[in-house]
Amino acid sequence: MSDGGDYVPPPESQGGWRHLGGSGAVRERAGLDPDRLALMHERQVLTHGGESWSILVIRRGWLAAEWHTFNILVPSRFDIWSCTKSLTGTAWGVLIGDSREGRAPGGRRVDLDTPAYGLIPAGHPLTDPRKARITLGHLLTMTSGLPGEETGVIGMPTAADVGPFEHALGRAPNRFGRSVATLAAEPGTRWDYCDPGIAHLALAFREAAGRDLHPFLEERVLRPIGVEGLSWDVQGGSGFMGPHTNAHTGVHVSARELARLGYLYLRGGSWAGERIVPAWWVELATRSSQVLNPRYGYACWVNTDGSMWPALPRDAFAFVGFRSNRCYVVPSLDLVVVRIGSGPTAWDEQELIGRVVDAVRD
Question: Which residues contact 335 (CB under 8 A, 6 or more apart)?
Answer without folding.
Answer: 57, 58, 59, 266, 328, 329, 356, 357, 360
